[in-house]
Design goal:
This protein is mostly helical and 69 residues long. Helices cover 42% and strands 0% of the residues. The chain has two helices and no strands. The termini are far apart.
Amino acid sequence: MDKPEDPPATGRASRSFVSRQDLDDADDILFAHPPLKVTRWLCGCGEDYPCPDVRFAQLVRHASVRAAP
């Protein structure tokens, strides 16, 4: 795989704090970890569903259903 050479320095001496290997590693990481579009549910209060209030209400409902004869 051919890799482009670093551009020539213009005027002042340019220094980079990263090596070519660091840049290649960063490219590999970014390729292996692409962003994903995620669909999620939101509660009416604006928090992720189920919010803590809904979780508590579900816990109470499930507990009362199991306790009923």
